[in-house]
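Incident review: delayed structure delivery

Summary: a single-chain prediction request sat in the queue longer than the usual turnaround. Root cause was a stuck worker, restarted by the on-call engineer. No data loss occurred. The affected request and its eventual output are reproduced below so the record is complete for anyone auditing the incident later.

Affected input:
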Amino acid sequence: MLNKTIGRLLKMGTLLSTYGLLFTVLLQIICRFTPMNTPSWTEEASRLFFIYAMSFAAGLAMKNEFYVHLDMFYERFPERIKKTLHLAVPSISLILFVIMAVYAIKFVILGIPEKSPSMGFNMGIAFFSIFIMSTSISYYLLKKIMKIIKNSRP
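Output delivered after worker restart:
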């Protein structure tokens, strides 16, 4: 149940952010080819929508294992090293993303008093994308590690 809910939230966040990005870019294009002035906030909004789209999609990429693997090197290793790497790589990545999530909270708190130049919202909103990305990747890495441990038992 929790897994489906997190997956749906990440999908919805990715879709809404991508649609927001498309809307702001189309608005910029339309305004440039018509007598209307381009609103000053569109560039900053499109950048923010892009950042959030990537943040939501990063967890989904980890879930579906869409990240690049260096199979050319991996396949040359002996079976014992492959088993070790199969658990070590996600474990080390999990540690790094958990550390990143902890520091992302501090980064969000630091950004709360700052204001966005053209849109006027606090920058903690923009920095929150780092927390979303690191926690969603951590969640799916933890699930992967648990699956590896469960499957390696005799």
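Verification: The radius of gyration is 20 Å.
Action items: add queue-age alerting; document worker restart procedure.
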